[in-house]
Amino acid sequence: VLYPALAKETLPPTNKRTLASVVISVFVLLLVLNAFAYWAIAQYDRRNLMRKFTLIDLLDEPVDVLLLGDSSVSTGINPQGIESETGLRALNLSLNTGWTYYNDVWMLEYYIEKFGAPSYIVWGHAYDNNHFVFDPVTQLSSVTHFHGLEHNSQYVTPDMTPIDKLTITVRRMFPFYFRDQTVATLVDRILSREPLIRTDEDLFATAGYDAKTVVNIPRVEADARSQVLRDDYDFSADNLRVIDVFFDMIDQYDIPTYIVVTAVHEWIGDREAFFDATYDLRQFWNDASEQYDHVQFNPEVPVFSSHDMFDSDHLNVYGAEVYTQY
Description:
Elements: H1 16-44, H2 49-58, E1 65-69, H3 71-74, H4 79-86, E2 90-92, H5 102-115, E3 120-124, H6 136-141, H7 149-152, H8 162-173, H9 175-178, H10 180-191, H11 200-205, H12 217-226, H13 237-253, E4 257-260, E5 264-265, H14 266-269, H15 272-277, H16 279-291, E6 295-298, E7 303-304, E8 309-311, E9 314-315, H17 317-324
Parallel strand pairs: 1-2, 1-3, 3-4, 4-6, 5-7
Antiparallel strand pairs: 8-9
């Protein structure tokens, strides 16, 4: 016999009770994992919009300066550096690009509700992010706890259908499935023995500043050289609408506001093509400074070397120390 008979495995007969037990066990396991993901993201994910609202909640008295913008401000301006240079207490409420200019309005609105208008605002967005359109389903789904400003803001809310709102609710409830990449990152950090829970003191200690301590010159230079300059960097209609709202708020509350150009790598910033492509952006902010009494604009483009950059348009702590003094 060329092929001997293979051994046969006889499976024990199943029944409805066994099957139900297996299904229930799997369901309970998924609920436990989802509950852990929900808790862990709320505790640890510092990019979360909730974390910035929490900074305002933790304040026991008003600050002098609000730092608003995208991640180039979050990593580029250290509130402690402002305080040591000027004696003014600052709070960095900047978030990543996906929140566009909505974050600026919501943060300012929430701060004013609690403390009144700040004495000063420093405001900046990276040159290549102004064309972004706010995606409420993607962005708001990533927030496990929220203050409801996406529905209740006095000034600006994104356009959402009932289906969008339902999708956001479902995705918030089940982060283990819908935020699997974030969960995987958290698991990696747990396995590397990084502390999972951020206490109030940990969160508040940096006043919202996202310090980048890594110096990786080859990676930074590769990232800078991979950036392809467009002919221009126009604002999306969505951003223009929200920017108008922000200017109206500044005007309403008489808040001195300083608009800054965020840092770029020298390989980008020293090129004539960069100045040509971003001319309209700088002109837009310059026109705003002439239109609004409380707005000033510094058109200087801060250019940094690879040693001071985390990537092509984000500073590390060494570059941020210099940029904060601008």
